Amino acid sequence: MSPALLKLLPSCAPRNSGRCPSQCPFCNGKHFWLHGSYSRKWFYSRGSPGEPTPQRTVQRYLCRDPSCGHTFSVPPPDVLPYCRFLWNDLLCIALLLAQEKSAYAIAKHHWRVPIRCILRAKKTIDEISEWLKVMCRETRQAIESGLSLLTVGVLQTYSWVELRSMWFRVRYPERFRRLAPHTI
Q1: Would you kindly state where each structural domain of the chain is located, as residue ranges?
Q2: pTM for this one?
Q3: Which of 37, 38, 75, 148 lies 20 to 30 angstroms, CA to CA, from 17?
Q4: Helix or strand (DSSP H, E) at 57
Q5: What pLDDT tens digit does each residue of the chain (184 aa) get?
Q6: Which H helix or E strand runs over 54?
Q7: What is the distance between the alpha carbons of residues 141 and 107, in angstroms, rounded to a whole number?
Q8: For residue 135, which of 111, 169, 107, 105 has the smallest C-alpha distance?
């Protein structure tokens, strides 16, 4: 991974502890309370065949503004919405694919996961790369090849949180539409 990318990406904390949102993402309200938590699973490169799938606990919140009432969470900084691969893991797979390793070799020798997981990650990498090329064109950045170089180019204009949010909105437009508030 390039040193420029490491400086721009957020640090990857092992847990979501101590991370409290500053405002509700729906109404920008400052009053919310804890509303349970959930465990987030993901695949990662350092697993061994007998280990259980690692998990992170993500805290959920409920907005106390009567006109809002939405629930929301603050995911760890290296997690993409609805993606079981961490951002650094996607960069690692992209690097292995750029070195002309096959999906089978990556799945069998590097990650110890079924090949369908690597193929799904490759599809995600291809989609993110195409989207980042469009973002580079929009921000008038030079279009580079490779996921990490594309990311560095776009992170010169947008923060990591903005970039992750924009990707979520583009990839899952139906999930982002405004829903009726949560009722207690």
Answers
A1: 27-176
A2: 0.69
A3: 148
A4: strand 55-63
A5: 444 444 444 433 333 334 677 888 788 888 889 999 988 777 654 554 555 566 778 889 999 998 888 888 887 777 777 777 788 888 888 999 999 999 999 988 888 788 998 999 999 999 988 888 888 888 776 777 788 888 888 888 888 778 887 888 788 777 656 555 555 5
A6: none
A7: 34
A8: 169
